[in-house]
């Protein structure tokens, strides 16, 4: 199946540029160890950053892409650690599946609780999402805050939290690599991670757009 046909480009010129860009990524990346659906995610991440190191740094738990696609097809919520992820996602594509996005990092109650407990806003934002019943069965999308990912891992281990998929891609130098390593040890919840320090909201957005494209292609094939 040619997933390049699933595009946000509205003009022939835009579609040609996108098609050519993906062709260059495929040619320069060369052989890889990813399954076909996983490569759709990785190539879009490379396309978004022009960084070929994500061919290798990106890892998937078994069935992670399928889990993400199915979550989108049923309209699961996306809970992000920062607003940038929500802003970066294509509203028409989200609306197509009835998917809502949520982030609570700047909420007054989150800030107050973080100060009261001497924790981080990111931790309290994930706890608020859990209180609102958004995490179970949802897609957790973390590109900035390692403490958010550490809290989600803790909730999965201690509170029986069961997201549909965790996209763990926090960038940074303090606990970023460690948080992703801890996530990758979990074998009961699907996940996608970038090993090491690299990551960021742009990568999370690219990964979700790839999942949306795959979900659209699957939906079109059924109809």
Structure overview:
Helix content is 55%, strand content 9%. It has 11 helices and 6 strands. The protein has a 6-stranded mixed beta sheet with strand order 1-6-5-4-2-3, with helices on both faces. Helix 2 packs across helix 11, helix 7 crosses helix 8 and helix 9 runs parallel beside helix 10.
What's the structural blueprint in terms of helices and strands?
Elements lengths: L11 H18 L6 H14 L4 H4 E3 L3 H10 L4 E3 L2 H6 L2 H7 L3 E2 L5 H10 L3 H11 L7 E4 L3 H13 L6 E4 L7 H8 L7 E4 L6 H22 L1
Parallel strand pairs: 2-3, 2-4, 4-5, 5-6
Antiparallel strand pairs: 1-6
- Main sheet overview: 6 strands, mixed
Give the topology string: H per helix, E per strand. Answer: HHHEHEHHEHHEHEHEH
Distance between the termini: 15 Å
Would you state the CATH class? Alpha Beta
Number of strands: 6
Provide the domain count: 1
Global shape: globular
Please give the order of strands in the largest beta sheet: 1-6-5-4-2-3
Structural class: alpha/beta
Q: How many H/I helices?
A: 11
Mean pLDDT: 94
Short summary:
By secondary structure, the chain is an alpha/beta fold. The chain has eleven helices and six strands.
Search tags:
223 residues, alpha/beta, Rossmann fold, 6-stranded mixed beta sheet, 6 strands, 55% helix, globular, disordered N terminus
């Amino acid at each position: 199946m040619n997933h390049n046909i699933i595009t946000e480009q509205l003009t022939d010129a835009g579609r040609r540029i996108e098609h050519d860009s993906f062709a260059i990524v495929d040619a320069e990346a060369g052989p890889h160890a990813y399954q076909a659906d996983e490569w759709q995610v990785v190539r879009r991440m490379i396309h978004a950053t022009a960084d070929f190191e994500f061919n290798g740094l990106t890892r998937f738990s078994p069935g992670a892409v399928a889990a993400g696609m199915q979550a989108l097809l049923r309209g699961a919520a996306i809970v992000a650690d920062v607003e940038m992820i929500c802003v970066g996602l294509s509203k028409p594509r989200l609306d197509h599946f009835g998917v809502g996005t949520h982030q609570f990092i700047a909420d007054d109650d989150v800030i107050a609780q973080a100060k009261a407990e001497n924790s981080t806003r990111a931790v309290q934002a994930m706890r608020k999402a859990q209180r609102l019943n958004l995490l179970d069965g949802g897609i957790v999308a973390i590109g900035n805050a390692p403490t958010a990912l550490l809290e989600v891992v803790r909730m999965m281990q201690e509170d029986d939290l069961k997201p549909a998929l965790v996209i763990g891609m926090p960038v940074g130098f303090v606990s970023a690599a460690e948080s992703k390593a801890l996530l990758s040890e979990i074998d009961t919840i699907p996940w996608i991670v970038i090993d090491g320090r690299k990551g960021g909201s742009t990568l999370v957005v690219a990964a979700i757009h790839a999942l949306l494209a795959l979900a659209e292609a699957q939906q079109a094939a059924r109809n």
